[in-house]
Amino acid sequence: ADISTTLAGVKLPNLLFNASGVCCQTEADLKLMVESESGALITKSATVEQRDGNPAPRYTPLPNGIGSINSMGLPNEGYEYYLEYAKKYDYNSEKPLFISLSGLSLDDNVKMCKAFVDAKLPCVLEINYSCPNVPGKPQMGYDMEAMEKSLSVLAPLIKKPFGIKLPPYFDIAHFDQAAAVFNKFDNLAFVTCINSVGNGLAIDFVTEQALIKPKDGFGGLGGLMVLNTALANVNAFHRRLPGKQIVGVGGVVSGKEAFLHVLAGASAVQIGTMLKEEGPGVFARIAKELSDIMVAKGYKTLEDFRGKVKTL
Ligand SMILES: C=Cc1c(C(=O)O)[nH]c(=O)[nH]c1=O
Description:
34% helix, 8-stranded parallel sheet, 9 helices, binds ligand ERO, TIM Barrel
């Protein structure tokens, strides 16, 4: 079956790519993504300066495949590293490049966006409003006014289609308020839902210790356990953002969850925890599983079922 898609005006040979943060911090990581069967790749969220991030252990999978917890602390090589990578990238390859930016201030986001705009590159920007793990920095995604202020500056600066990475919302009023902000910006072409479910706590029963070191063990939750929150956020924004696209992420461990994300309204699907645990081979596996599901259900393309979740 045809699992290709278009996102922000660029063609992806298949709808699957990495969630920013996983397999994408260094050129070696990104090379693995280029060589994988993913349909695209996105870089680790960049800040103006290089960051080491939080002390380890700062990521761990959780028992029984239910997911993961992380408090990486935004480790990255600094935006100029990713700008150089984007300048060298082979845009004739069929795999489009996405760039994630996560400035610690509006000024930082302006500085980074300006650099990418001035470079006139085909890569697509995804502004991260939802990093839950920078101590002392409440995430923008839960501050509607701050997001609107940021977008009112960045959208006209970026000019071309771009996206934003959102935290999960859990209140219908918040879906409504967030959508009202996003609908004001025509070149905001897509929203990526969801980032990790912020500030979970994993504790080891035997040692009675938190599993990760930073923030007293508090970190973002990912993997299968966040699937149903992810599907709700994908569908809530699919219903509320006419003319915009949704990138679904959260709980994709097989073709089945990728299928559900598309059914909920996703135009593309990112994979985080499963990529971290299984490695880049996950893309070929899930692409085949999704194609087989589509054949079994009689769907030829993603458009045949995108957003067509039935209600009772
Ligand atoms: C960009 C920082 C993020 C991080 C991090 O670097 O701690 N972890 C996440 O789960 N989501 C993020 O957006």
